[in-house]
Each structure stands twice: as structure tokens, then as C-alpha cells.
């Protein structure tokens, strides 16, 4: 095999491996849920219970995904900060 063919096959292999990794990461609803919890924690700071949110993600297996812009989806994780 010449070097051009090896480079081409290497590039194809790299593409297949990285694309399948991204698909697996995005397809995990628990991971999406936990990332959304982290985003909401960054947005709301001490008013948002990030650990409680992450625990709910694991407990419900990612079936409820918090949306930081939807008050109904994050209401259980908000608290009054005094």
C-alpha cells in the first residue's frame, strides 16, 4: 500500500470513530439531562439545586430533561436564596 492510500484509510477510520462517539454521547438522555442541569446551575447560581437536578436525571433515567428557559421543567430545582 502506498502512503496516499494509508492516509486516506486513516482519515476514513478517524472519521468513523469520531462520528460514532459523538452519536453515542448525544444519544444518552441521562448525559443530556445532566449537561442541562449544569447549564441551569451556571445560569441561576445559588437559586438552582444542581445536585438535586442531576439526581433526578439518574433516578428517572433522563426521561425529564430540564430546560433552563422553561420554568415548569426546572421549578422542582429552584429555591429561595436568603
Automatic annotation (TrEMBL):
One GO MF term attached to the UniProt entry: ecdysis-triggering hormone activity
Signal sequence residues: 1-27
Coiled coil stretches, renumbered: none
The organism's place on the tree of life at top rank: Eukaryota
Keyword Metal-binding set for record: no
Gene Ontology annotations of biological process type: ecdysis, chitin-based cuticle; neuropeptide signaling pathway
Keywords linked to the UniProt accession: Signal
Entry keyword annotation includes Signal: yes
Protein name: Eclosion domain containing protein
